[in-house]
Amino acid sequence: MATFSPREIVSELDRYIIGQHEAKRAVAIALRNRWRRQQLPPDLREEVMPKNILMIGPTGVGKTEISRRLAKLAGAPFIKVEATKFTEVGYVGRDVEQIIRDLVEAAIALTREQMRQGVQARAHLNAEERVLDALVGKTASPATRDSFRQKLRNGELDDKEIEIQVADNGGPLGGFEIPGVPGANIGVLNINDMIQRAMGGVRTKTVKTTVRESYKILINDESDKLLDQDEVIRRALASAENDGIVFIDEIDKIASREGGLGAGVSREGVQRDLLPLVEGTTVATKYGPVKTDHILFIASGAFHVSKPSDLLPELQGRLPIRVELRALEKDDFRRILTETEASLIKQYIALMATEGVELEFTDGAIDRLAEIAVELNANVENIGARRLQTVMERVLDDISFNAPDRSGTKVVIDARYVEQHVGDLSRNTDLSRYIL
Ligand SMILES: Nc1ncnc2c1ncn2[C@@H]1O[C@H](COP(=O)(O)OP(=O)(O)OP(=O)(O)O)[C@@H](O)[C@H]1O
């Protein structure tokens, strides 16, 4: 895990998320604490439990984004779930354990990606051999092979179509679960393995693609062959246990203590199911058991109706760090549009540049965009920063559509342009409900 100080973590998060300092501070401390824990002697290390976080704030103000960016920064497996999902009809108590299984899947994908980097160079060489096989066949003379290798390296064959054989991981034998018995695909998987071994190795499929594209596929295929799969799983399980971050959204919706409506699982029931995960338990996954004791849980909700004190006392105790995220205002929207890394404005400018259209936004335009977003959030529904996406899409609709015909031109978007394209719409509350 990367070793950033809390201050560094906050400043890294600042690049993507505007404001919400308190929440950034809390997650930065939580992450640093994990590193601190890793430095301790083993017996003491086991005693240190993560201080889970409860984020309180309206929708679309950065709760998920902060957590997701934190995970990315730390190279930690991350999973987001909606607490309300478990109140739906058809769910049974044990289903919450699926959260941990999904986390493990995320950890495996992440670990594999990290480990692939280590064997990249070898994999690239092996991939080249396979592309050559596809181009000239295995029996071609060394001279022919070498001349093709030269052409290949010069990029002369990039667009040529070839057929390659790659491992087939999907298909009808790909581990399916037995309904109602979570984790029961263990047996199925082993049977798959046995069948595959009996048939003489991994099943393959033929893929037709260009030389350029084939490299991506073959390098992945070759790196997987070079990787020790047991090692991938071992590291992934450790990473899920020690670095995993689980984000539980809409926890406020399961906060009341009386039973749920209709035939679903009661809200209190879901809290009771979640409790062992948060307190620390062992979940069986098809890769092996996973201890949840050191997984960091970040729960989040608006708490407009219910209060954190409506949660089960045991759960409240397990979410000791409370941070409030505030509603976003006009100035925040301005900054989200302009200051964040890969902001919407930067994205649109880059997208239009691919069509040869130079796009420019004046300060006045950005001001007006932010203003309209605030008005719509106040008059229609407060969806936080997500509002910027709908407004921007509408403003740029024309340009997006016509860009291919306007290559080589410059388009300046000023306050008037914004007003012309969404001004009226934003004042018509009924219409905005559908379009913005
Ligand atoms: N403070 C912020 N700075 C920059 N971008 C933000 C900010 N708040 C929200 N966004 C953007 O708005 C979108 C939605 O934010 P996010 O997913 O974090 O919402 P949330 O607070 O978790 O709400 P919900 O609980 O409904 O999921 C994201 O694309 C995010 O990048």
TrEMBL record:
Residues holding ATP: 18, 60-65, 249, 314, 386
* GO annotation, biological process: proteolysis
Which NCBIfam families does this one have? hslU, PRK05201.1
State the protein's name: ATP-dependent protease ATPase subunit HslU
Write out the annotated subcellular location: Cytoplasm
How it assembles, according to the record, is: A double ring-shaped homohexamer of HslV is capped on each side by a ring-shaped HslU homohexamer. The assembly of the HslU/HslV complex is dependent on binding of ATP.
The alphabetized UniProt keywords are: ATP-binding, Chaperone, Cytoplasm, Hydrolase, Nucleotide-binding, Protease
